[in-house]
Design the sequence.
């Protein structure tokens, strides 16, 4: 089973290499990575090209700046995997991140989405948010999903695996 990873990028030259390297280092190898350069005016495109060269799992799409939602949608138009996840260009993921998400996804027969635990760290290395327990949802759960304050879906598609 292939996991499609969508990475929207805008002016992220200082963080995108670490992000892409963390994706390259996944223990789960059956991935395709769609990187959308959303009209960056810094050296993001150059850093992306240098980082993904030679790895056929990575595809780069360059588009005029249209915003993060349009970039994610452009990625969704290109995915071929059975599962989808998003990683923002200023994020990095642990080596077994995808393996853990997929394991939880496959544990049950009717799972449509897994919400991964996460740790949010700012530039000063101060941890401000820590959610380490995964949550699993089927499509039957979706009507009440947005009321679940613990997973905070409000506009944030990262740290989730979608069927």
Sequence:
């Amino acid at each position: 089973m292939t996991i499609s990873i969508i990475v929207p990028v805008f002016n992220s030259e200082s963080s995108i290499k670490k992000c892409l390297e963390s994706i390259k280092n996944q223990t789960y190898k059956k991935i395709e990575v769609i990187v959308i350069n959303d009209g960056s005016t810094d050296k993001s495109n150059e850093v992306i090209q240098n980082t993904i060269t030679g790895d056929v799992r990575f595809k780069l799409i360059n588009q005029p700046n249209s915003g993060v939602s349009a970039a994610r949608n452009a990625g969704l138009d290109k995915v071929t995997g059975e599962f989808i996840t998003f990683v923002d260009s200023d994020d990095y993921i642990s080596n077994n991140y995808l393996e853990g998400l997929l394991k939880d996804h496959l544990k049950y027969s009717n799972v449509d989405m897994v919400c991964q635990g996460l740790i949010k760290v700012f530039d000063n290395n101060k941890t401000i948010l820590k959610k380490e327990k995964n949550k699993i949802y089927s499509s039957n759960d979706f009507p009440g999903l947005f009321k679940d304050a613990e997973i905070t879906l409000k506009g944030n598609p990262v740290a989730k695996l979608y069927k």
